[in-house]
Amino acid sequence: MSATFADSVKRAQRSIDSARALFREGLVPECHDYMASALRVLLEAWGGLAPAVEHASFEPARAQEQALAELERAGYRHTDRLRAAVATTAEPSSSAALLPPNVDWIWAEVERLARFSTRRAMMPRARKLARWRRGVVSALVLAFALLLAIRLWGRPHARASGVFSEVHPAAKAIDGLEATEWLLPDATAGWLDVLFPSARSVHSVRLLNAHNVFYVDRGAKAVRVTAFTAQGKAVSVEGSFARLTEERSVLDLPLEAKGVTRVRVEILTYFRVGGGLAEIEVH
Which residues pair with residue 232 across a beta bridge? Predict the structure, then answer.
């Protein structure tokens, strides 16, 4: 693209920037005038790219058609809407009463043409570099999305026999945060299943007891942990916490099994008003 074309695109962009500033000030008619001016400058720039034999005619209608034809040759896919915008902005208007209805679609077409023209005004090397950058960004976004999907798919899920409230769901026991807790309803024994997306080997389970934050009035006491495979129950072990404290009590239990699809932690007895766990770690 020629330097003249690039200069015209820059001039049109300055008009668009001025139009945006005027719109923020509530000066809609003046904003429309600047948008119309940007459109005329862009069309003149594209008309100047038409074959030399076409340049003899300076009739506005003919010049606009030459510009639209050149845009189509360049791969612009919105010439019909652009033609309608050209017809609507044939003459600038400084009076709100003369503004066409729904001018926002006209401005959108002007900005679309400006973006297309800016890309075409770039040197071939710069366009290639821009495409390469867009490709790299797209690849990074895709890789991040795939990684996120794999991580979400690969995470275990939890389900429980019951919960004390929606603030203490089963998922809190496997979220990796010691500050959150899964709590059972008052005076109720219960269980929580940790379900794996695929069968895995298990060697041990670590349980961090709940204490209900400020109240220290509930937590697991005697527990049973069972590993299940696709064929059913594989191995089970029992243990108990010594006491309920404000600090996190930890209970490590050996649990050797292969092909495990889920681990169930049963709270058989509890301290004070009910049971619960802060975290279940399966190793």
Answer: 229
